[in-house]
């Protein structure tokens, strides 16, 4: 988008360049104001978690959920993480926000389990800064203890770039988590650089195929090949494989035919408020839409 703006600005001369400059200033001001209000958001309790179902592709049953942060901004409305998480990372607020996310997800999940809903895996995304912080393991241990949530039902999602930086310390943190019974998933798999030898050494339970490969599955033969290869890789390493961003019946049918374990995407369910997710869990049954 910025490249295009620059192109048009150059093409059509000074007037447009001025317009472009103003847009950039406007954007900088917006970033600054988001950063300022981000500092207050935790105290004001403006964050919330939505939960998106992960389903077993064979039965359609909910086997887990991914907790996804949202910010109920007083002026701007409900903001998605794309609008504020990189700012939170740049100014270090990602650490207290990450602690809030973990605690909130564990509290919610423990409440679901205590109310007699079927047990599901609850996944939480973790940023590089959190994963590398000194207090990370201790905070997880303490949170599990105070919330009473079963560690075997907690999954931590990490991207390849987080895992492959400083592999020795990564390996030790992953083993500590795994020893606590916590499950580990590689998020956005296929978009970063993973060393296959570490993929084998790390105690990883789940590979999440990035949605960019799933999007074009039925239009682009290369993407279909990649998805199939990741499913085989996961199987041979005894990992569960889940496809992200499943939006159509064709994508679902392809994944099922290739024996992918799980799916997540708008085709099965959007990220939703905890009450809605609880209602779905209570109803049981399959989230695979009836085909026509
Ligand atoms: P992610 O972990 O890869 O999460 C999946 C994203 O894909 C979510 O976007 C989800 O709403 C979206 N999605 C799910 N199904 C579909 C689909 O069928 N089609 C399409 N086009 N998109 C789908 P969201 O909620 O905007 O989150 C974006 C990213 O922000 C996440 O990507 C994750 O990297 C980060 N994030 C979200 N919550 C947290 C959090 O609590 N902590 C940290 N550190 N990062 C988070
Ligand atoms: Mg994720
Ligand atoms: Mg992902
Ligand atoms: Mg992503």
Mean pLDDT: 92
Please state the CA-atom Rg, rounded to the nearest Å. 21 Å
- Approximate strand percentage: 15-25%
The bound ligands are: ligand C2E, magnesium ion
Shape descriptor: globular
| Helicity level | 40-55%
From the N-terminal CA to the C-terminal CA, the straight-line distance is: 39 Å
Number of helices: 13
**Largest sheet strand order:** 1-2-4-5-6-7-8-9
Outline the low-pLDDT stretches.
none
Q: Structural class of the helix and strand makeup?
A: alpha/beta
The major pleated sheet works out as:
8 strands, mixed, barrel
The sequence of SSEs as H and E is HHEEEHHEHHEHHEHEHHEHEH
- The count of DSSP E runs of length 2 or more, i.e. the number of strands, is 9
Protein name: cyclic-guanylate-specific phosphodiesterase
Domain EAL: 31-285
Organism: Arsukibacterium tuosuense
Describe what this molecule looks like in 3D.
By secondary structure, the chain is α/β, with parallel strands linked by helices. Helix content is 50%, strand content 18%. The protein is built from 13 helices and nine strands. The chain has helices at residues 2-11, 13-41, 85-90, 94-114, 128-132, 136-147, 160-164, 167-179, 196-201, 211-215, 221-236, 249-257, 274-283, and strands spanning 47-56, 62-73, 77-79, 121-125, 154-159, 183-189, 206-209, 240-243, 262-263. An eight-stranded mixed barrel has the order 1-2-4-5-6-7-8-9, surrounded by four helices. Strand 2 and strand 3 form a beta hairpin. Helix 1 runs antiparallel to helix 2 and helix 4 (94-114) packs parallel to helix 6. The longest helix has 29 residues, at 13-41. The protein is globular, with a radius of gyration of 21 Å. The two termini are 39 Å apart. The relative contact order is 0.12. Residues 187-188, 208, 244 line the site of one magnesium ion. It comes from Arsukibacterium tuosuense. This is cyclic-guanylate-specific phosphodiesterase. Keywords: c-di-GMP.
């Amino acid at each position: 988008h910025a490249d295009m703006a620059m192109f048009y600005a150059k093409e059509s001369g000074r007037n447009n360049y001025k317009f472009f400059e103003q847009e950039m200033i406007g954007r900088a001001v917006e970033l600054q104001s988001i950063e300022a209000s981000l500092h207050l958001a935790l105290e004001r309790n403006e964050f919330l978690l939505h939960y998106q179902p992960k389903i077993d592709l064979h039965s359609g049953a909910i086997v887990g959920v991914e907790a996804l942060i949202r910010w109920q901004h007083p002026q701007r409305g409900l903001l998605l993480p794309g609008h504020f998480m990189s700012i939170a990372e740049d100014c270090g607020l990602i650490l207290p926000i990450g602690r809030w996310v973990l605690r909130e997800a564990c509290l919610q999940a423990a409440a679901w389990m205590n109310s007699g809903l079927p047990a599901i895996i609850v996944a939480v995304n973790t940023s590089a800064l959190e994963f590398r912080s000194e207090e990370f393991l201790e905070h997880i241990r303490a949170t599990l203890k105070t919330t009473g949530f079963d560690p075997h039902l907690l999954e931590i999602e990490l991207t390849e770039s987080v895992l492959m930086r400083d592999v020795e310390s990564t390996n030790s943190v992953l083993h500590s988590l795994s020893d606590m019974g916590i499950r580990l998933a590689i998020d956005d798999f296929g978009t970063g650089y993973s060393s296959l030898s570490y993929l084998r050494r790390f105690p990883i339970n789940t590979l999440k195929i990035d949605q960019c490969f799933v999007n074009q599955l039925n239009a682009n033969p290369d993407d279909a090949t990649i998805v199939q290869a990741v499913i085989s890789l996961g199987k041979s390493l005894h990992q569960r494989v889940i496809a992200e961003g499943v939006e159509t019946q064709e994508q679902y049918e392809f994944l099922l035919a290739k024996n992918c374990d799980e799916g997540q995407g708008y085709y099965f369910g959007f990220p939703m408020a905890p009450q809605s997710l609880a209602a779905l869990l209570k109803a049981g049954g399959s989230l695979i839409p009836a085909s026509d």
